[in-house]
Amino acid sequence: MLTLKEKIAAIPEGAGALFFIQIFATLGFAVLYSTLVLYATKKLNFTAKDATAIMGVFGAFNYGLHLFGGYLGGRFMSNRNLFVGGMISQVIGCACISGGTVSQLYWGLAFFLTGSGLNVTCLNLMLTQRFKPEDNRRESAFLWNYAGMNLGFFIGFTVAGYFETQQDYASLFMFATVGNFLAIVLAGANWKVLADLNTPLLTATRTQFKLRFMIGLGILLGLIPLVYTMLHHAELSGNLVIMVGALIAITLIYLTLRHQDKRERNNMRAYLLLLIGSLVFWTLYQMAPMGLQLFAENNVNRHVWGVEIAPQWIQNINSFIIMIGGPLMSIWFNKLRSKGWNIDVPNQFATSLILIGAGFLVLPVGIALAGADGLVAFKWIAISYVLQSVAELLISPIGYAMIGRLAPTQYQGVMMGTWMLVTGVASVFASYFSGLIPEAREGLAASTNPIYTSIFSNLGYGSVAVGVAMILLIPFLRRLMNNSATAAIPPAELPMPAIKVQDI
Question: Residue 437: how many CB atoms within 10 A of its CB?
């Protein structure tokens, strides 16, 4: 049996460094993800509708640029160069936002989103390149990297909550600036061991590399004013994202109908059905930094045992359950499968939709039991986040993994890109639902509770209905998949678990 020292020595060079880089690279995103809506409404006097519209575009752009980041890094700048360039853009963005003006917010978000949208894919690609195709340690490495990301979220949410209680947003965004800068320092300290492996750019001559690098740098810099402009037209940008998503969906339906191979055509039909479930799930999930955040801030009694719980701290329920629950669920599922239980992709999708729907349906119950002041007991939103987190464990890891089984070789790129884009479209839908919330005023929780009840009930029942429909479709989906995607996929043991809107 290997000793701890021998196990550490066996880790591929660079994999350990990427774990710590991931922690610091996540801090800025965690701060903005959990605080942007509150900062915009409380500090900059945005309406709830405008703030959630920006948050919707924030999520849409973050996901929309992920796929492009892999292409730009692998063919133009190299993954490590683009990662550092993206982190520099994030540092500038956080520093701008700390200035405290509306203009600085827009420019800061433009810099930050350009960086985070492009560099997340680069980090994941650098990690996967440390391992040979047959090396089964890759799964463990991604699990550790996933844990590092969640640790970054936990730290970011915790610090954000502390500064939120102090109303000291400038210091909070400077913390994010320093955290992201440390990721650059760590990348620089490990520069040689993070070199790209097996990318098309490696075949380029020195002159070709310089030309491609300059083109890539020009694209990176050119995206910043483009994102800035689109943030100023958040509603239009959101509609554009939905239109692009619809066009890609129509294209996929056309490709599916025209595809000649019957088995692969059936797999693509299964993918399209699961895509609908994914859209519903992520629409509800993306309510966390928008409508749920405003609800927690204004309509929940956040005093627990004499301590005021900051809204950002509530999101740590999710981080904690993902870090602890993932391995436990994996062990539990393995035991169930050994006893003959058929836990497969359709089962997990259906269950996750019902669970996240239940997570929203408990909130109207809490509202109905609220006191005279209209404030909902903290336990109800805690229960909601627990249910949502368990649902995430069921659906998130299998999403990307199943594409490798369902997608024909020639369509893998577009099907993976579509799966990412769905989360961006869902973020826009979540901003629309959150925009229905009336402007909050202190002491008026009772007057806004009926609106929250209506929104949460409709979303919850809608998700449960889709989950029930998915249950009815399980036999049909299994036949479509033709045994290509029904193999056991243990949650938290997959190489690319897709939590949070920062993931690849």
Answer: 21
Distance CA 438, CA 47 (A): 9
Break the chain into its structural domains and give their ranges.
15-232, 236-504
d(CA 238, CA 429): 8
Residue 377: which H helix or E strand, with range?
strand 376-377
Q: Identify which of 290, 293, 248, 286 has the alpha carbon closest to the alpha carbon of residue 427.
A: 286
Residue given tokens 């490990």 in the structure block: 190
Fold identical between 15-232 and 236-504?
Answer: yes
Residues of the chain with confidence (pLDDT) below 50: 4, 6, 8, 485-499, 501-504
**CATH T-level assignment (fold) for domain 15-232:** Growth Hormone; Chain: A; (1.20.1250)
If you ran DSSP here, which 8-state letter would residue 193 be given? G
Q: In whole angstroms, how far apart are CA 196 and each of 74, 122, 201, 326?
A: 8, 10, 9, 30
Which one-letter DSSP state was computed for residue 300? E
pLDDT at 401: 63
Kindly report, residue by residue over 371-422, the tens digit of the pLDDT: 888 899 999 999 999 999 999 888 876 766 677 678 787 777 678 778 878 8
Give the span between the Cα atoms of 381 and 468, in whole angstroms: 24
pLDDT attached to residue 495: 36
According to CATH, the topology of domain 236-504 is Growth Hormone; Chain: A; (1.20.1250)
Let me know: does 427 contact 59? Beta carbons within 8 Å.
Answer: yes
Pairing assessment for the beta strands 303-304 and 307-308 based on DSSP bridges: antiparallel
What element of type H or E holds 357? helix 345-368
Nearest to 86 by CA among 110, 55, 64, 118: 118
CA angle 171, 112, 424 (to 5 degrees): 120
- pTM of the shown model: 0.82
Say which DSSP state 197 is in. Answer: -
The dihedral formed by the CA atoms of 296, 300, 303 and 304, expressed in degrees to the nearest 10: -90
Say whether 303 sits in a helix, a strand or coil. strand
Cβ–Cβ contacts within 10 Å for residue 392, how many?
Answer: 26
Cβ neighbours of 261 (radius 10 Å):
10
CA distance 100 to 105: 7
